[in-house]
Design goal:
The N and C termini lie far apart (about 40 Å). The mean pLDDT is about 90. By secondary structure, this protein is an alpha/beta fold. Among the domains are: about 1-80 and about 165-170 and about 190-240, 3-Layer(aba) Sandwich (Rossmann fold), CATH 3.40.50; about 245-270, no CATH class. It is built from 11 helices and 10 strands. α4 (about 110-125) packs across α5, α5 packs parallel to α6 (about 170-185) and α8 (about 225-230) packs across α9. The strands form 2 sheets. Strands 6-7-8-3-9-10 form a 6-stranded mixed β-sheet, sandwiched between helices. β7, α6 and β8 form a beta-alpha-beta unit. It has helices at about 40-45, 70-80, 95-105, 110-125, 140-155, 170-185, 200-205, 225-230, 235-240, 250-255, 260-265; strands spanning about 1-10, 15-25, 30-35, 55-60, 65, 80-85, 160-165, 190-195, 210-215, 215-225. The chain binds adenosine-5'-triphosphate (ATP) and magnesium ion. Adenosine-5'-triphosphate (ATP) binds next to α1.
Length: about 270
């Protein structure tokens, strides 16, 4: 579905990405995890063909995104892609409904009945059915986020990207949003989903496999339950530091590896 090979990218004299490679298969849910400023959003822009790498190749659904020169061809590929940007990116002058209709009109062949039923179904699935005729500025940040995510998925994309879908939201809303992405997307099994985040909890709640970026390089790529126990010292530390000390019940709910729990928690109290 996505194949990134040996990508490097500098801005001016500053190398940001060095030899990045990873791939995403149909049906996979992966998290691109790394500290703020490590280049996650830039990687998405490269995959979507919005930026060109200095070296390396990128294929998205079998199409070469680096050497694609025709806008028509790029639009054709991007019609099958869902994207929820880090900064909402809803049209402020359109109602919620019209934002969603606009995306479906441009990206799908759905008829009016299908589009209308999707608007209602998806909005009520994320519990904001009431906002259909409201404008983005009338919504809270969390509601705007939900609309952005609905817009990314309502078009039935083959691949969907979510850039920091929960940044700045409270933990309860964050959990609702993650579950929502999984539920809304869960209908088609071969849909590939990529979440970019700097938040370990978000990454492991969402994805089985994570690709970790640090200092412009892929420093880990695998199931997080393995990485947490056997990644490099930096990887283990990055993953563990946020998790150790969590409430025991919550740690169990995250399904952290038993070995990790027994190392760091005693029977009742989280170890600090
Ligand atoms: N077009 C550009 N020109 C110059 N520098 C850029 C450009 N785009 C990104 N950068 C720089 O690249 C670095 C990585 O940016 P990017 O947004 O990809 O990181 P990120 O991992 O998504 O960060 P965050 O977690 O904060 O969203 C930043 O230092 C940013 O200033
Ligand atoms: Mg970013």
């Amino acid at each position: 579905m996505i194949q990134v090979e040996n990508i490097s990218k500098s801005f001016g004299d500053t190398p940001l990405l060095k030899n990045i490679s990873f791939s995403v298969a149909p049906g996979e849910r992966i998290a691109l995890l790394g500290p703020g400023g490590s280049g996650k959003t830039t990687i998405l822009k490269l995959i979507l063909g919005l930026l060109t790498p200095d070296t390396g190749s990128i294929s998205l659904m079998g199409r070469d995104m680096v050497h694609m020169t025709s806008d028509r061809e790029r639009r054709e590929v991007l019609r099958k892609v869902g994207m929820a940007f880090q900064q909402g990116a809803l049209f402020d002058f359109m109602t919620v409904r019209d934002n969603l209709m606009f995306a479906m009109e441009h990206m799908t062949d759905f008829d009016l009945t299908e589009m209308d039923s999707r608007v209602k179904r998806f909005l009520s699935a994320v519990k904001i059915g009431r906002t259909e005729l409201m404008y983005p500025y009338e919504l809270s940040g969390g509601m705007q986020r939900r609309v952005g995510i609905v817009r990314a998925l309502a078009t039935d994309p083959i691949v969907a990207f979510f850039d920091e879908p929960t940044a700045g939201l409270d933990p309860v809303t964050s959990t609702i949003i993650l579950n929502m992405i999984r539920d809304l997307a869960g209908k088609t099994n071969d849909q590939a989903l990529v979440v970019c985040t700097s938040n370990v909890e978000i990454a492991i709640r969402f994805a089985d496999r994570i690709v970790m970026i640090n200092d412009g390089e892929v420093v880990a790529d695998g199931p997080w339950r393995q990485l947490i126990l056997s990644g490099s010292p930096w990887v283990q530390k990055f993953l563990q530091v946020r998790l150790i000390g969590l409430d025991t019940e919550y740690a169990l709910e995250l399904d952290l590896p038993k070995e990790f729990i027994s190392q760091h928690w005693n029977s009742n109290q989280p170890a600090v």
